[in-house]
């Protein structure tokens, strides 16, 4: 199913670990360059701005090919306009396949063709079904998942997560007011189920190249779980979808549950992140705490905005100050000292890197002894006594 060479994918994981070990100071730049020389690599681009530039270039190339075909097809009947997006999707898939065979991976050009394929499939199904949202997002989810499995394309996996969430939402809309009413609870349970599923898959994985995809899906489930029962989200969606008019002095059904959910879940995220040393969950918890504060202030302005910002800044400063003071001397566990390696698996793969680099290392050649021996002078220099 995977278009890329699996050995190259494993080598790429080793190169990433080598970069982490070099940044941490465990290996030198020469050793890292030796590892890179011994292990084949993809045509990849790590600089996000350069990758964005290649993405724009690939989009222009993709659009040019589709435009050239349209110049020929537009002279036919109206049938072309009904099938043109299918043709464009096929072009995108063919382009992604060619780039994969040429060892392009996370480069930018492949992003344009992969994402263009998903977009054109959505447009094609939309034209064929007169804009039936549920069918559109189902086919987009299928296309995004196939492209991810085929090319290990992380943006396509993100598109799959978004499209799958849309499938859940539009599927519940088919049940009318009942489906719209239970939507927050269904989304909460589904996201929780997939969170534990992806968590278990990460722990049991055997291929290193699936790690980032599973981690992305796992993080998306955390975000979806929080937003599914956030009070602001639920209240505004109840007004939009159900047409509920919330009069002064009234509130949405189960309001106390949504209040508690909005306040408790970010704290649970924060505690769990500190307990498991999960950096991504820690950032998500910070964002969730900020959005929870915004949710409360959106409906209840207890203090003027300038007073609230000042007090909030003072509280955050106090928390940061005392946390740094308490943790700055700790050498293990939760500490304020800089993290030498961002990837916790780097040390575990150090042995594999050393073995990989050992094949390319050659022992230092001892220079031959010079036939002429210097020294032995009795005064200021070699040969001062008249002999060598």
Task: Characterise this structure.
The chain is mainly α. The chain has a domain at 43-174. It contains 14 helices and no strands. It has helices spanning 6-24, 29-38, 48-73, 79-101, 109-128, 133-151, 154-173, 177-204, 211-228, 231-242, 255-276, 279-299, 305-327, 350-358. The radius of gyration is 29 Å and the shape is flat. Residues 343-348, 350-355, 357-367 and 378-384 have low confidence and may be disordered. The chain crosses the membrane at residues 52-73, 79-100, 112-128, 157-175, 181-197, 209-234, 254-271, 280-299, 305-324. It comes from Flavobacterium frigidimaris. Keywords: Membrane, Transmembrane, Transmembrane helix. This is DUF2157 domain-containing protein.
Overall strand count: 0
Large-scale geometry: flat
Strand content: under 5%
- Largest sheet, strands/sense/barrel: none
Uncertain spans: 343-348, 350-355, 357-367, 378-384
Taking Cα atoms only, what radius of gyration do you get, to the nearest Å? 29 Å
Mean residue pLDDT = 80
H-E order = HHHHHHHHHHHHHH
Helical segment count: 14
* Multimeric state: single chain
């Amino acid at each position: 199913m995977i278009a890329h060479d699996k050995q190259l994918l494993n080598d790429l994981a080793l190169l990433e670990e080598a970069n982490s070990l070099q940044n941490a100071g465990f290996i030198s730049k020469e050793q890292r360059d030796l590892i890179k020389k011994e292990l084949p690599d993809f045509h990849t681009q790590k600089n996000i701005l350069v990758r964005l530039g290649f993405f724009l270039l690939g989009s222009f190339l993709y659009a040019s090919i589709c435009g050239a075909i349209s110049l020929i097809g537009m002279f036919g009947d109206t049938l072309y306009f009904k099938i043109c997006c299918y043709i464009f999707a096929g072009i995108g898939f063919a382009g992604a396949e060619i780039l994969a065979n040429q060892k392009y991976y996370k480069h930018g050009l492949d992003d344009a063709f992969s994402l263009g394929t998903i977009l054109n499939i959505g447009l094609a199904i939309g034209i064929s079904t007169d804009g039936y949202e549920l069918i559109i997002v189902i086919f987009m989810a299928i296309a995004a998942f196939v492209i991810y499995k085929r090319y290990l394309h992380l943006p396509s996996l993100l598109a799959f997560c978004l499209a799958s969430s849309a499938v859940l939402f539009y599927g519940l809309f088919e049940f009318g007011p009942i489906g719209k009413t239970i939507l927050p609870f269904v989304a909460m349970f589904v996201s929780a189920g997939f969170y534990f599923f992806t968590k278990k898959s990460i722990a049991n994985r055997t291929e290193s190249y699936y790690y980032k995809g599973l981690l992305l899906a796992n993080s998306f489930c955390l975000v979806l779980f929080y937003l599914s029962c956030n009070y602001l989200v639920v209240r505004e969606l109840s007004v939009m979808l159900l047409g509920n008019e919330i009069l002064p002095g009234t509130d949405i059904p189960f309001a106390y549950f949504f209040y508690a959910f909005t306040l408790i879940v970010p704290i649970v995220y924060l505690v769990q992140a500190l307990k498991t040393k999960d950096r991504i969950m820690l950032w998500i918890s910070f964002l969730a705490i900020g959005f929870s504060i915004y949710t409360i202030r959106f409906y209840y302005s207890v203090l003027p905005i300038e007073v609230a910002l000042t007090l909030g800044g003072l509280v955050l400063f106090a928390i940061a100050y005392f946390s740094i003071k308490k943790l700055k001397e700790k050498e293990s566990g939760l500490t304020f000292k800089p993290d030498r390696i961002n990837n916790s698996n780097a040390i575990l793969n150090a042995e594999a890197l050393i073995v990989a680099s050992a094949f390319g290392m050659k022992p230092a050649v001892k220079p031959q002894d010079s036939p002429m021996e210097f020294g032995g002078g009795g005064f200021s220099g070699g040969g001062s006594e008249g002999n060598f």
